[in-house]
Amino acid sequence: MKLGARILKTGLAIVFALYIANLLNLPSPVFAGIAAIFAIQPSIYRSYLTILEQVQSNLIGAAIAVSFGLLFGHQYVAVGLAAIITISIVIRLGLENCISLSLVTVIAILEVQGDDFLTFGLIRFVTVLIGVLAAFIVNLVFLPPRYETRLFQSINLLQDEIIRWTRLAVRQASEHTSTKQSLRKLKEHHLKLNQLYLFYKEERRYIKNEKHVKARKLVVYRQMITTSKKSLEVLQRLHLHENELSKLPEQFHIMIQERLDFLLTYHEQLFLKYSGKLKPDHKAWIGQEEYLQRNEVMDIFAEQIAISRENDEDEEFSSYHLLHILSRILDYEENLEHLDTLIMSYQNHHGDEIKLEIEDSIF
């Protein structure tokens, strides 16, 4: 079992909340620990939003609990009605994520009996808020998430896997079942990338210059994810049409293989370029001097279709399926070129900063 940062933070937040509640001699400190569990979030910004939402929902729950306690006493039916009304109001205000904690506040207040009901109700409300604040402090100080580092490394790892399997697939060297299983894992990995990107996007910068840098980075990382998706689509097509690919004329098959080899190498070098590991004067990519333009590829494709029809090779040569593969390759190529343009634009403005940050994250 892997212990992630969020698991450790949850345990630490519970301990911290219980410690503060005991230090202040608050009765039933367990409610602070329960509140801390609900308040732990995967990012600092989400923790901040959670505090605002939970303060509002807890105020609603406390107000309803006190009102029902004064009007109906501490009957079980009153607790149920208070919970129903609290849920309705919280949902109405768009605070659905805080329903559980607001209900904890309702029950914590309504289970208090005696003449000092209002005083104890206020204490229980404060106890819950202490748990929320304790979780925020832990999230802010202890192992703060570095989503940019995780995002870049995840994109890099995903692309390495895609490149490896694509090189095997285009050479008809990969085993069908293994490729199918790997494709499923690669798709899952790509979905996680989108979540990491969202977490990184939510991180706030408070210095004007840092905001501009962050905005440029977001554009670059979004294109990295899009380009990885396009390369994954190429691999999916190679896997789906592996039988048709094996029936291609040898010359055409070699052309596709060489083109993909060039694009995959191009993609690898773009990651090195972004991380500052390529020489500044390195502008010509490997194999560029023999690289066919897109219009030349389409001309060769059209010629091959004409030849196959003249020779009555329709069964051997499936132009329809080949067009699917070529369209994915050309789409992948266009996205690589766009990514290259964005990286060059970013490095012209902030090249030294990204190199330093990535090196610090690795070492």
UniProtKB/TrEMBL annotation:
The chain crosses the membrane at residues 12-40, 60-82, 89-110, 122-143. It is a multi-pass membrane protein. It comes from the Bacteria. It is found in: Cell membrane. Keywords: Cell membrane, Membrane, Transmembrane, Transmembrane helix. InterPro entries: ArAE_1. Coiled coil: none annotated. One of its GO terms (cellular component) is plasma membrane. The keyword Cell membrane applies. The keyword Membrane applies. PANTHER family: P-HYDROXYBENZOIC ACID EFFLUX PUMP SUBUNIT-RELATED, UPF0421 PROTEIN YGAE. This is Aromatic acid exporter family protein.
